[in-house]
């Protein structure tokens, strides 16, 4: 029973936090649970859940967000080919974060896991900003198909908006903070040594067994 609790309670906590964090207005711009969620899912989720559950959770919330953006008038082109292609690159980045997480053992210290979460946030930032530059779903004049324009996409971004470096700062902060919180949740829900040994029976000492046979 404790093992079942630790295997399924943690995914429930992770998915619940992710879903709540994606409600519009809950988090600052680019301050997201997603980076840490995908990395920590790779680290902590059981093998039978590690691929389909995180991606399904992201997919369902993405669909909900797209309908919200469409019907609230924020973005009526969320279902355009360019935007969907850009979104597909996000899923490639999610897969990279899951793979990165699979390379970490759950017994690692929280500090080392935070380092992995930060690396995952950097990879996500580079992949997704490259996709925005490549597909340019909003037809930004700055995003021409040149190396200099790609550098602009990773540093300055679109004129009239905060720089992408500010987004990068929020990406790193959220990646580090939520990785630490998820790792702490794992430590809390993990089986203690006492739980692991509960129900096991210590073998009788050979001398005691022999004594019992003689007495019998």
Question: In brief, what are we looking at here?
Answer:
The protein is mainly α. The chain is built from nine helices and no strands.
Structure in words:
This protein has 216 residues and is mostly helical. The chain has one domain (2-191). It is 69% helix and 0% strand. It contains nine helices and no strands. Helix 1 (2-21) packs antiparallel against helix 2 and helix 5 (110-135) runs antiparallel to helix 7 (164-189). The longest helix has 26 residues, at 110-135. The two termini are 39 Å apart.
Topology:
Layout: H1 2-21, H2 34-44, H3 52-71, H4 81-102, H5 110-135, H6 147-155, H7 164-189, H8 193-197, H9 206-215
Task: Quickly list its features.
69% helix, single chain, globular, 216 residues, mainly alpha
Shape: globular
Q: What is the overall pLDDT average? A: 83
> Measured on Cα atoms, how large is the radius of gyration?
23 Å
The secondary-structure class comes to mainly alpha
Helix fraction bin: 55-70%
């Amino acid at each position: 029973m404790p093992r079942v609790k630790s295997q399924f309670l943690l995914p429930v906590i992770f998915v619940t936090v992710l879903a709540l964090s994606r409600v519009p207005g809950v988090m600052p711009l680019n301050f997201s649970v997603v980076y840490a969620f995908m990395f920590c899912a790779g680290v902590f989720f059981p093998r039978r859940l590690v691929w389909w559950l995180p991606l399904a959770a992201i997919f369902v919330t993405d669909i909900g967000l797209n309908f919200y953006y469409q019907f609230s008038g924020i973005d009526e082109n969320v279902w355009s080919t360019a935007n969907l292609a850009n979104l597909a690159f996000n899923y490639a980045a999610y897969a990279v974060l899951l793979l990165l997480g699979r390379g970490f053992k759950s017994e690692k210290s929280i500090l080392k896991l935070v380092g992995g979460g930060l690396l995952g946030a950097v990879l996500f930032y580079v992949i997704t900003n490259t996709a925005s530059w490549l597909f340019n779903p909003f037809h930004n004049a700055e995003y021409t198909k040149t190396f200099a324009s790609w550098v602009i996409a990773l540093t300055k971004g679109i004129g009239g908006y905060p720089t992408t470096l500010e987004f990068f700062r929020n990406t790193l902060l959220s990646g580090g903070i939520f990785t630490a919180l998820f790792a702490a949740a794992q430590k809390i829900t993990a089986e203690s040594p006492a739980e692991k040994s509960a129900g096991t029976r210590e073998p009788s000492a050979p001398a005691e067994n022999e004594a019992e046979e003689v007495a019998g």
